[in-house]
Amino acid sequence: MSEEYVLEMHDIVKEFPGVRALKGVQLKVRPGTVHTLMGENGAGKSTLMKCLIGIQPVTSGKIIYKGKEVAFKSTQEALDAGISMIHQELSPVLERSVADNVWLGREPKKGLLIDKKKMNDDCRELFARMGLDLDPNEKMKNLTVAKMQMVEIVKAVSYDASIVIMDEPTSALTEAEVADLFKIIADLKAKGVAIIYISHKMDEIFQISDDISVYRDGEFVASDRAENLTQDKLIQLMVGREITDMFPKVPCPIGDVVLKVEHLNAGRLVQDVSFDLRKGEILGFAGLVGAGRTETMEAIFGMRHVTSGKIYKDGQELHIKNPGDAIRNHIGLLTEDRRGNGIVGLLSVKMNSVISKLILGKYGMPLNNKQMIKDTEEYIEKLRTKTASIDTPIANLSGGNQQKVLVGRWLLTDPDILIVDEPTRGIDVGAKSEIHSLLSELAGQGKAIIVISSEMPEVMGVADRIVVMHEGHVSGILDRSEFSQELIMKYATTHEMGKR
Amino acid sequence: MNSNMKKTISDNMIWLILVALIIIMSIARPVFFTVANARTLLTGESIKGILAFGVALAILTKGIDLSIGASAALIACVTGALVQPADLATKVLPGVGPLPAIVVIIIGLLMGAVIGAIMGAIIAYTKMPAFIATLGGQLICRAAAKIFTSRPVSNLSDSYRFLGSGKIGGFPVIILVFVVVFILAWFILNQTRFGKSLYAIGGNDQAARVAGINVEKNLVITYILVGLCAALAGILLAGRAGSADPANSGLNYELDAIAAATVGGTSHTGGICKVTGVLCGILILGVINNGLVLIGVDDNYTNIIKGIIIVAAVALDMRKNTRKA
């Protein structure tokens, strides 16, 4: 076996019940290089890494690390072998010191006791080596997110790793901190460490990558030296799929502006967001995970504190403090996290259907049970929801049918504006197309609809216009005639392209 | 056995247990199964029962209220002090009152509402576990009662005592009060927007919020209602006994109330509560208390049996609900 590659992954297949997440993909990493993995959300990059470091077992395939076939059963085994990973979601122990966090679970010992001095000294040495100015005794919770990220990196490096995997390490960093990180990466490279780098940011990818591998829908697309690739070429590789499951859009007349959002600010992921929405229009929101689409909608719906900016409905400025206010103003939000903040699993299909209309006080007191049953049954029939009875707990329904109940819930509140966030995530193809046609039908009735979707064919299929977001900013707004996967991906991965 | 019948049995299990207990007690001591004893039993359980309906609301929202026994004692002492005769040598508040019973009862209920509102606001807005907030409330209320008066408050006016020990046509008023609270609780949970909101909050507070429910406001109202139940319990306690004891009135009543709500199927993981179930829980614990006394079982053994029943009830409930989820 040649020593050209420190890591080779061949024909990796990963199956989850009902889904093939990885369909025989490959990855070959050379020592002392930065190897970037690219692909849309759900392309399989993170799953591949989880398979590598033993978080999930592969269904089939071969992993060769330093010339030997391996199959790590836990992250600990991977770490011991010299592969460490910096996860996108940090998990620091906030109440403990920096040093405690770095040495967590492998504290140097003196007899039975932890050797505090050695911990701190080693920590200082590591920090010095990476040019970091940090006190090992500082409590983790006093650090900025960026500093915590740096500590994570120090920790990963401290294992004397041969491969360090970084999953979107710069998403929380400022430009200066990114520069520091890149310096550290250069040092690591010089020492022969291979970096597997996952990122969506084109500019930084071309800045640091030696090799780039592209994945799409669980399949390996291509791998090449960075210098042989261009941004356009990459985007083409990432999105180059056939659009076959597109729902044919039913054109409907578009009326006056119903919702106008001006210079909305609400935290890091909602910065100076402006757009408008018309009666009968379906406005798509595209972008990568973490672009701030969900957060923008939460801000409009009163779930997130708005620091500045204005929201108008039918020309009147709205002051929405909580979802109840939004609903009273005839705005509905079908959230992305159906189990987390959509359904109340214990309650019946009936209660889940009528709860928002009930909150509006439309059933009187004592509650008009007959009307509640009538309303529930009306939407079960209209949306063809499959349920044993209206008294069945909603948790017993399939994802698609739960989603239909929630759609019915919002329709019962008679919304002028319906925001749907990833409405077809995790539901089967049949229910999916039913939801698509329902959205078109609602637009036809004169409702204004916002659809957030990470599935590009979906958003291109149903929308009249698409707002693309990138890191909390609106990076582009496209008319239907301009729709192309390449253009959307370009806006989604690049900061402030400017077309508004 | 077909699945429908199984479901009917499983849904009404606690009523079957109640009937079984009544049969066992009646066989062991025929005097158990008499109208007079039923009246004794209900009179004895009314106060804890009212507390149980109250605390069930808190448990429904995934909360709890440990302060109710102590706040009942505090309110019993304060309201009691307002209805002592003016010429009483041991009067707690010399020169004050006696005030008309109706005024004093309203004062008592207001006190309960304020205590509940404070508890509710702390729980809703600081997101503090209700267990901690109301444990603090319990200590404070009990201590406040003892500071307010070091000795029992006695010689209470007859009009004040009417709710606790009065009779209408030979029927104890306290049982009527209990029945009224039961009906109110049933109405609130089944026929009002507020009640349905509590089920949603207990089941999934994030989803409840998105559905338009003002979670914080509803939690505050919940604890106000619990506080009102505690106030009513305090007034009944003093009225029934004829005096209020700052150290011992209502002592550990919150635990019996929680036990009754729990045995009645109110889930501590939130979102599940049937008022009729709570009523059944109250009756089950009442039958055990009353029946074992009649049989002559030692108090400590009674508590062991109660302990086992509570744990068993929750264990059954957990199994039922995990299967559902």
Notes on the protein architecture:
The complex is a heterodimer of chains A (500) and B (325). The model of chain A has no long low-confidence stretch (mean pLDDT 86). Helix content of chain A is 34%, strand content 24%. Chain A contains 17 helices and 22 strands. In chain A, α8 (231-239) crosses α17, α12 (349-359) packs across α13 and α13 (369-382) crosses α14. In chain A, strands 6-9-10-3-11-12 form a six-stranded mixed beta sheet, sandwiched between helices. In chain A, strands 18-19-20-15-21-22 form a six-stranded mixed beta sheet, with helices on both faces. Chain A is globular. With 500 residues, chain A is of the alpha/beta class. Chain B is mostly helical. Chain B has one domain (32-320). In chain B, 74% of the residues lie in helices and 1% in strands. Chain B has helices spanning 3-11, 13-28, 35-60, 68-82, 101-126, 130-148, 158-165, 173-191, 193-203, 205-210, 215-241, 253-263, 275-295, 299-324; strands at residues 167-168, 171-172. Chain B has a two-stranded antiparallel sheet. In chain B, a hairpin with a 2-residue loop joins β1 and β2. Chain B is globular, with a radius of gyration of 20 Å. Classes of the chains: A alpha/beta (500), B mainly alpha (325). At the A-B interface, α10 and α12 of A face α8, α9 and α10 of B.
